[in-house]
Design a protein that fits this description.
This is Nucleoporin Pom152. This protein has 1265 residues and is mainly beta.
């Protein structure tokens, strides 16, 4: 027998025919060779009087009774199918109904009345039963063949009502009372005692797992023998793959060798322990211990056990690609192979950081059912005819798909795999562990996760096209990026773009349908696609070696080829009016291209040197006047042209020639500014002459309205005019009036040169500040000493600091300038010189004295509330919202301006917030600073600078820090503001409480206000010493009145003595006081059993809401009647804690308790079907375990052990009483022991018993108390 408990709903054992003769028993399968080897027979068990009965017509030796019943059932099903076929043909072909009806009542009559003649057990019904069955079949035949309507729906509803009747249970769900009362799990367990021959043998007694693979190629399976000396052991091996059987016979010589090894091993362990033979195997399969023969030639009955040697489980990561993109799925698959269900454990490592290990359990193919999940007996395989294909190794693929949220190297590694038999292969264990070591390839799979690229066009769009010269190659201004922090610099970028030639663009500027799709691969991010043809370029995609990217806007660029620059010349002579000679050439320039233009040309005088010149032109048309200063033959060659787009381009055959004879002229050389000279000095001017010499030059000297004219003859092109000494101060003007060349052509000139003659020499001295030549200045601040200078700018001034002996030279451009100094001391002017003449220093005003003003200082007044610690001033803590100040002391020049920084450190958030810089102004030597208390936290006042009426800022000021802690004001609020709480008129336990939450430091003081409806004056209630931040507020019942009341918080105070008074009506709840409903139990007893019903009468207005607890869990039920009834489905404490009716929201506190006791249960052999083999004369124990309340009274039976084809009979019924929850009964008799009834102090349970003589109902008898 296997170890699965048999449900009580199975078919009863087949009744067997009892033969008095010994040979009949032998013929029914009780072969003497299969009987236990016992020294004396068991006493005869009382049997019912069956001598008058006969066996079935077909002997059970040929076909056993269950098989005969199966054949009868199959014939009946076949007739039923044929009957339904006739009914179908009747509906389709309209065959005559009467003949079909006669046909079927004849068939049914023959079947029903002839079946009892076969005397098949359970089908030997009486004549009355046969007639009743025939009548039922005749009615059904008539309804089918005459097509009479059948009320199938009503029948099904009645059937569902019978089998699915349900009631509401205490757990508030529907349950069938029959399922609660008839719980087969209350009595579990069965112990089968077999009398065995001397000795025993068992295969794999410790149920160890075994497996083979390439590294573990042979094993030693354990065979435990006890009190026997075997000479033959037969093992049966079932091949897992082919299900073929193989018998392995272990010879006496091999057994002797195995026993010698076992005895040596036993000496070192427990000498009294059974021998453990270890037989080597090399093949997988299911091994059964078939036969053991000892020295006495008797067969030792082996215990039913099997050993499965499977292929060791293995796993690998299926190879996939080595590259992924960010935000892709990992797309990894684990391939696990072994006997399912399997378990695999793996770990993910990202950039060298391992994550927590993960695992998959219960891996098995779909529709796969393993007997391991429901196996309880020691022997999984009982014989070699069972299907063992479930033990074959299966290959299961598990997909892993997770989003790759970060770039880098991801590694998936398998750590452990386990099959259903308990074989574990650990790939990370140390080498000294005794586990299968198999290191297949593919345990790790690593791949790189790359960032995705993106691209944008920078500096080009359809509105801002690229201007590129024809034939030139330009770069598409791409700017690369990625989903990471920057562009991907170590990978090639492939860009696909769409190109449409400029002439093929659509009228709206879009691409034409014939646009070309091009692709370029760029090796580095510094490269850009090269483009040449004019038209519209639009980037469609970007990708790297591994990832597709994103194209950002703007993604389109228009390339334009402007026309090449060209130059066209027109020219005319410039003619002298007097002599009629050409003096130059006026050239007209007509250009094509993109401005600005640069024109390079060569001007060369015959016999002279080439002069290269450049002309810049910002428009498409301009003129150029070529007027060389000297006479001669000139050639103008235009060499090249360049515009904004195109580079230098040569010009061909653009040459102009002209003979130039310029008119006479003269001008001063370097006379742009007036010359400055001292009085009584002469002055010289250089003059350049042009034209045909020699010349007559006329000039005049003008001063104070007087003109002195001069005329000279000049034969050279340069001449120096020198005046006489200028004795008067003031301004002189030297003017060139006319020039006459050798042709007699006179030209009037407008050239003038000015000369300023100084009236006196320059002088220098210090000015005064506030009437004195001394000053008190700010330290390290530049002081501007006033200078007074006469003469012509600029001046060169030299002065000395008499205290430091430092001499400096100063260039001054203003007569009333200032000299900046940064050091205190007495300064002396040494010398002065203006732009023309040296000067002198005024001795009376040549010195100036500078002294520093003291800087302001700041300090904090210390007191009992202000102490100096660790370099900071600590102010006494205050509460939020309270006013507080501290004094600041000053020294210096009032008024004072102080700048301080205010910082707030939020202790909850752990962050410091700068509240900004503030100013403090004081008109005296002290000031009071009001501290910030509007928000709680740690405030820090850092004085960073001070200024007074003299100093704007204190660069040398050492910052002073003042700290003060502002404690937050406590706060109290209702957890659910605005909610209405209901109270009963009488005080009950468990009344609704009003939860209040506090912010602050406990203990708290709370003051609330209760305003009753219709009363003008509210009541005030205080609650002291509240130790927690959440408090359940219970309103004293003496303050409650029927009707509605409002409750609001007036004041709250915490341990820091900080107080908060909430605004009126900011936090409010309502309470409503009602009369309470009632509940009365209909039964006075307090103890019930599972399966019974609890009933209560409810007083009030329906519907009701019943609150109760069951096993510590709060329940709520709605009841529409005045009787509350529940089925006791589970044991526990049932207590009605409250009741609410529909008249009010009042919850009446109740305490009506009922104890529901569990139906007692008993476990024999720990609730399993166990087999115990003992020797003749030996004994064993029946271990009973009880659940319930002592004392226990139970009844158990001993029946014959089940044999196929023979019904088990009850041999003995015993009743025992136990005052403990465990009882052991020692027995020696062979048989099947099982409990049939159990009773404890409160409840009882009995189950049907098979094979009891007398009072048999269907082969069963109920034992009840």
């Amino acid at each position: 027998m296997n170890g699965t408990p048999r449900p009580s709903g199975t078919f009863p054992s087949t009744p067997q025919t009892n033969r008095s003769s010994r040979w009949a028993d032998s013929r029914n399968g009780a072969s003497p060779s299969r009987r236990p080897n016992v020294s004396m027979p068991l006493p005869e068990v009382p049997r019912p009087d069956d001598e008058t009965k006969t066996g079935p017509l077909i002997s059970t030796d040929i076909i056993d009774a269950p098989t005969q019943r199966f054949y009868v059932f199959a014939i009946y099903v076949g007739l039923l199918a044929y009957r339904l076929y006739d009914f179908y043909t009747l509906a389709v072909d309209d065959v005559e109904s009467f003949w079909l009806f006669i046909k079927w009542i004849a068939i049914d009559g023959t079947f029903i009345f002839s079946l009892p003649l076969f005397q098949i057990p359970w089908l030997e019904w009486s004549n009355f039963v046969a007639v009743a069955l025939f009548a039922i079949h005749a009615i059904v035949d008539g309804m089918l063949m005459f097509r009479i309507g059948v009320p199938i729906q009503a029948w099904l509803f009645s059937l569902v009502t019978v089998f699915f009747d349900s009631e509401m249970t205490i757990s508030e769900h529907k349950a069938n009372p029959r399922a609660v009362l008839n719980n087969a799990s209350l009595i579990l367990g069965k112990q089968i005692i077999n009398i065995l021959p001397e000795g025993s043998a068992i295969l794999n007694p410790n149920k160890e797992p075994f497996c083979l693979n390439s590294s573990v190629q042979h094993l030693e399976i354990p065979i435990q023998i006890n009190q026997t000396d075997p000479i033959l052991i037969e093992l049966s091996r079932i091949d897992i793959g082919t299900s073929q059987n193989e018998t392995i016979a272990i010879s006496g010589r091999e057994i002797k060798t195995l026993m010698n090894k076992a005895k040596k091993a036993r000496k070192h362990a427990d000498p009294a322990a059974p021998l453990l033979l270890r037989y080597p195997i090399k093949k997988t399969g299911i091994y059964l211990l078939q036969k053991v023969v000892d020295k006495s030639k008797l067969e030792v009955r082996p215990r039913s056990a099997s050993l499965i040697v499977a292929t060791c489980p293995q796993s690998r990561v299926k190879p996939t690609g080595n590259n992924r993109c960010r935000n892709d799925l990992s797309n990894i698959a684990l391939e696990v192979e072994g006997t399912p269900p399997l378990r695999v454990k793996y770990r993910t490592t990202v950039n060298g950081h391992p994550r927590e290990a993960s695992e998959f359990q219960s891996l098995q193919p779909e529709d796969f059912i393993s007997p391991l999940s429901r196996h309880t007996s020691q022997a999984l395989i009982h014989n070699s005819r069972q299907d063992v294909s479930w033990a074959q190794p299966r290959k299961i693929t598990v997909a892993l798909n997770e989003t790759l949220v970060s770039s880098g190297v991801w590694t998936y590694s398998i750590e452990e795999v386990q099959d259903a038999l308990g074989n574990i292969v650990n790939y990370v264990v140390s080498e000294d562990e005794d586990r299968p070591k198999h290191k297949p390839s593919g345990l790790h799979q690593s791949f790189a996760v790359h960032e995705r690229p993106n691209v944008i066009l920078d500096g080009c769009s359809t509105q801002r096209p690229l201007q590129v010269a024809k034939g030139n190659v330009a770069r598409l201004p791409t700017k690369y990026g990625s989903t990471g922090k920057g562009a991907i610099s170590d990978s090639k970028h492939t860009i696909e773009y769409l190109f449409t030639a400029e002439d093929d663009l659509l009228p709206n500027g879009d691409h034409s349908p014939d646009a070309q799709l091009k692709q370029q691969t760029l090796k580095t991010i510094r490269e850009q696609p090269q483009i040449q043809a004019s038209g519209l370029y639009t980037i469609k995609s970007i990708s790297t070696e591994f990832c597709e990217g994103e194209v950002l806007e703007p993604a389109s660029c228009l390339l334009h080829n402007p026309p090449e620059p060209e130059l066209t010349l027109t020219s005319e002579d410039i003619v002298d009016k007097c002599a009629g000679n050409p003096i130059g050439l006026r050239v007209g320039l007509d250009l094509i291209g993109t401005p600005p233009f640069t024109i390079r040309y060569i001007q060369q005088k015959k016999g002279g040197v080439k002069s290269r010149k450049i002309k810049q032109i910002d428009s498409l048309r301009s003129t150029l006047d070529l007027t060389p200063p000297e006479a001669g033959h000139y050639t103008y060659t235009f060499e090249s042209i360049k515009d904004w787009v195109y580079g230098e381009r040569p010009l061909h055959e653009l040459i102009l020639e002209q003979d130039v004879r310029p008119s006479a002229s003269a001008h001063f050389i370097d006379a742009d500014r007036p010359k400055q000279i001292c009085i009584d000095d002469a002055v010289k001017f250089d003059v350049a002459l042009q034209g045909d010499g020699p010349w007559r030059l006329e000039y005049e000297l003008v001063h104070s309205g007087k003109r002195t004219k001069h005329s000279i003859e000049v034969e050279t092109e340069e001449y120096t005019i020198q005046t006489s000494k200028l004795t008067n101060g003031g301004e002189y003007t030297l003017a060139l009036t006319s020039i006459t060349d050798k042709m007699g052509c006179k030209e009037f000139l407008k050239e003038e040169a000015r000369v300023n003659v100084r009236h006196e020499r320059p002088k220098a001295y210090f000015g005064v500040i506030e009437g004195r030549q001394s000053v008190m200045a700010l330290e390290d601040k530049a002081v501007d000493l006033p200078l007074r200078l006469t003469g012509a700018a600029p001046w060169v001034l030299e002065y000395e600091n008499l205290d430091t002996k430092e001499i400096k030279k100063l260039h001054v451009r203003k007569a009333n300038d200032k000299v900046g100094i940064k050091s205190e001391g007495t300064y002396q002017l040494l010398s002065v010189r203006d732009s023309v003449c040296p000067g002198f220093v005024d001795e009376k005003a040549g010195q100036f004295t500078v002294n520093w003003i003291p800087r302001p200082k700041l300090s904090i007044a210390e007191s009992a509330t202000m102490v100096f610690e660790n370099g900071k001033y600590i102010k006494e803590p205050v509460c939020e919202g309270e006013e507080d100040t501290f004094d600041v002391l000053f020294s210096g020049s009032a008024p004072y301006d102080v700048v301080y920084e205010q910082h707030l450190k939020d202790k909850k958030a752990g962050k410091t917030v700068t509240l900004g810089k503030k100013e403090l102004k004081a008109s005296s030597s002290s000031a009071t600073l009001r501290t910030e208390t509007s928000q709680s936290g740690m405030y820090e006042y850092k004085f960073v600078s001070i200024s007074d009426s003299k100093y704007d800022n204190g660069r040398k000021f050492q910052p002073i820090v003042v700290q003060q802690t502002v404690n937050p004001r406590p706060n109290a609020k209702f957890a659910v503001p605005g909610k209405t709480y209901s109270y009963c008129s009488r005080e009950e336990d468990g009344e609704e409480v009003i939860p209040v939450t506090f912010d602050g430091v406990a203990p708290f003081y709370l003051e609330i206000e209760i305003k009753h409806h219709g009363t003008p004056k509210p009541e005030t209630v205080s609650f002291k010493n509240i130790q927690t931040n959440r408090y359940d507020l219970r309103i004293p019942h003496r303050l409650l009145q029927l009707g509605h009341s409002n409750i609001s918080i007036r004041k709250v105070r915490d341990a820091r003595n900080c107080v908060r008074k909430p605004e009126a009506h900011s936090h409010r709840v309502q309470i409503s006081v009602h009369d309470a409903p009632t509940a009365t139990p209909l039964e006075t007893r307090a103890d019930f059993c599972v399966g019974e019903r609890l009933s209560f009468a409810l007083g009030g207005q329906a519907p009701f809401t019943v609150y109760y607890t069951f096993n510590g869990q709060d329940k709520k039920a709605t009841n529409t009647h005045t009787t509350f009834r529940r089925l006791a489905e589970l044991p526990g404490q049932f207590t009605i804690t409250g009741l609410r009716d529909s008249a009010s929201e009042c919850l009446a506190g109740l305490n009506i308790s009922k104890e529901i006791h569990p139906i007692p249960s008993v476990r024999l052999s720990q609730g399993r079907i166990s087999q115990v083999d003992i020797h003749e004369g030996g004994e064993t124990e029946l271990e009973f375990e009880f659940n319930g309340t002592p004392p226990f009274e139970f009844t158990y039976t001993r029946s014959t052990n089940a044999v196929k084809g023979k019904k088990s009979r009850v041999l003995e019924i015993r009743t025992e009483t136990s005052y403990e929850k465990r009882m052991v009964v020692r027995v020696q008799e062979e048989g099947t022991y099982e409990v049939v009834s159990i009773k404890d102090r409160w409840c009882s349970f009995a189950r049907p018993v098979e094979g009891v003589e007398g009072g048999v109902v269907g082969g069963k008898k109920l034992l009840q108390y």
